[in-house]
Amino acid sequence: MSGISSSILTTLRLKNPKLLLLEFCSCLSHLKIIHGHMIRTHSITDVFSASRLIAFCINPTFQSNLLTYAFTIFSQLQNPNLFIYNALIQGFSASENPSQSLHFYTQLQSQGLFPDNITFPFLVKACTKLGSVCMGIQVHAQIIRHGLLNDVYVQNSLVLMYATFGDIKVASNIFRRMHGSNVASWTSMIAGYSKCGDVKSARKLFDKMPEKNLVTWSIMISGYTKNSHFDKAVELFQVLQSEGVRANETVMVSVISACAHLGALELGEKAHEYVERNNLDVNLILGTALVGMYARCGCIEKAIRVFEELPKRDTLSWTVLIAGLALHGYAEVALKYFEEMVNKGLTPRDITFTAILSACSHGGLVEKGLEIFESINIDYGIQPRLEHYGCVVDLLGRAGKLAEAEKFVLDMPIEPSAPIWGALLGACRIHKNAEIAERVGKVLIQLLPEHSGYYVLLSNIYARTNKWESAENMRNMMKLKGVKKPPGYSLIEMEGKVHRFTMGDKLHPEIEKIERMWEEILRKIRLTGYSGNTADALFDIDEEEKENALYRHSEKLAIAFGIMKTKAGTPIRIVKNLRVCEDCHTATKFISKVFQRELIVRDRNRFHHFKEGGCSCMDYW
């Protein structure tokens, strides 16, 4: 055995640690043999050999990452050198305990050693991982003190740190002073700008970069997705392909997520084809993203198919499917998958309960929903969150149990949030209960005085119950406080391009044809009994103007465009950023029957599957 140890010890002296790792990675027990040999022969005082052992322990490619063992070796050294301190600072900077790096730096100084351009990048990395701005500034001061501020590796680490902390001004100042900026520093700046929401500056830098790598492309595409510039993310992915760059799984997660938000099924399918064509690994993250994309694009059947084909599934992937089924109103199917998940021994998370309670609400399964709500704490030991209480309010409201829902809110053990009161107000709209609505509306306006939706919802409830003066007062209050309703828009994908429509849109290049098509649609649905519901329209215009405003709502223009551009019988998919108004909901039901089309509309709350004159939401949304 000692012969083997001596041989390895000789190798330690002669070979690069990376080569040693490759040679002995299958013989981890040799590490202890070597260490034991060094102790027995007193060669533990051989700093050179000890440093190679420590380097072996902290190698990031080594699965077990023996940092604890590295510390044991270090503690037996009388005079560790800078190489050893740097190795330990590096190893712990990427560990679960990065503060140890700062501890080793303090020790290094107490030993009279001087840090170098290897010490500081990993020390800065430790501060970044800790999320400690204060420590980061102190390390920055140490860098200046030791005259290493102009070192490119040190500068790169500082740029990344300040960009990660969101201090883009300091990061930018360091970046501008760099003489040898490389891909890493450019990418760090792009990441920083994206994190601060300034994707315009991030894109300017991206376009100026002399050289890009896949990480850069990934950061920029991800930046667009995280900042809700979903169309830009998809466009940049198309540029990536045109330049012959091969995307990886991380890039595709961002692209597929962007397609999901846009409701762009065709683009999402092309992204999925790209994954398959390039033999990318459909891991848990990418697989879950695909399930979510198909669900959010209105194709729940494909979402289920992708889910069933996943080689591995975790609680999140089950939750995404259950949430997708809930959005589409498939409560019974969602319950089936929920029960199957539990039976497989997976523990539901808080978001899983939000998804299944939402499914019960959309499906009108009041008793089952209440049973699941009770089980959150009793069976799983999870304290119900505000989202769970909100689902119960929605559940009771859907069933018309408004007094019970109001009492439930008032008896909550935690302070009800605006969305919870909002769910109750929405139920009052459906059931035309102005009395409870008035009480709830006052609370909401106090909680969120700038939120236009609650003013509009309350004024519409007053209008439906013929309280015209109260409705007018509510609209006047909005004007007085300067509260404006966010502009509604609808998206429809056609031949790989996403078209955006707003109310009264005049910017679309084919708007004249679209308006003519809408007039034809209107003529046909009127013959079968449709008449415009102007109750939700503005109150400061006359009835004729109200009708004209209603007929130019964004989803109506999108539907007209879809019918104009697709073959008879083709389903039409639309995404709307706001809740569908009552008149548009009624008109779409008529259109589905008259034109024999399935219209799949995703609004702010859920999916509406319009078919043969009916809607999957059963007129509750």
TrEMBL record:
Residues 529-621 form the DYW domain. PPR repeats lie at residues 81-115, 182-216, 314-348. GO terms for biological process: RNA modification. InterPro entries: DYW_dom, E_motif, PPR_At4g14850-like_plant, PPR_rpt, TPR-like_helical_dom_sf. PROSITE patterns: PPR (PS51375). It comes from the Eukaryota. One of its GO terms (molecular function) is zinc ion binding. Keywords: Repeat. It holds the Pfam family DYW_deaminase. Belongs to the PPR family. PCMP-H subfamily. This is DYW domain-containing protein.
